[in-house]
What does this fold into?
Amino acid sequence: MGERNGKSRIMVLCFLSRTMHLARYSSRLLGRQLCSASANKPVLTLFTKKPCPLCDEAKEVLEPYKRRFILREVDITLPENSAWYDKYKYDIPVFHLNGKFLMKHRVDIQKFEDQLSKLELHNDGNH
It folds into this structure.
């Protein structure tokens, strides 16, 4: 009886060990997929300052699209962003998509959708 109990315990331990290894591997793989998925999303940069009612309005307009891009806000009033302040102080909100100027003052939803779709098609083609 004792030998059979010992074998059962070893089998259970082996099973648990393999299960834990698989769980660790799966979580690492999932983490990599999530990171690469977000890394492939286009980056929409919003040049803004506080307060900026037009910026708040623009973010509301873009809300339905938020899963398709990463929003990066740049406060142009911070000392490290003085070059952006000099360039955009009279034009915020200003948007760049993947580092390229896209629009200013208000969201041009058609232009935004067109450019976002182009980037998504380009990214899908690179997988």
Notes: The helical segments are 2-39, 53-62, 82-88, 109-125. The two ends are 56 Å apart (CA to CA). The beta strands are 43-48, 70-75, 94-97, 100-104. The first helix runs from residue 2 to 39.
